[in-house]
Specification:
mainly alpha; 2 helices; 2 domains
Length: about 100
């Protein structure tokens, strides 16, 4: 009796996945084109300056030494504290505005 409803739901789900897959494919292709253009710009810059661009160094976090991990933790703590201060300032500004308007 409700087999047609389940069939319709499955077909709609497949269609949604197909549309999302096509969008993801196009965005991936655009990203690859941008990366190629950036590579060409790097090569032209290297030709102009005569220096080779430095190779990117990517080190996974679990391979970093204790000093690098401590530095990263400190930077993260500082960023979180700054973010917390900005949020507190925004909240205080909003509360001041509310009180000025008589809303709180």
């Amino acid at each position: 009796m409700t087999w047609w409803l389940w069939l319709l739901l499955v077909l709609v789900a497949l269609a949604v996945f197909a549309v999302l897959g096509v969008r993801l494919w196009h965005k991936g292709k655009a990203l690859f084109r941008e990366m190629q253009a950036l590579s060409e710009v790097g090569e032209r810059l290297a030709a102009i300056t005569g220096d080779e661009p430095p190779a990117p160094v990517v080190l996974p976090g679990f391979l970093a030494g204790p000093a690098e991990l401590a530095e990263a933790r400190l930077a993260r703590a500082q960023n979180l504290a700054a973010r917390r201060a900005r949020r507190h300032d925004r909240a205080q500004t909003a509360i001041t505005r509310w009180r000025r308007l008589g809303l709180r």
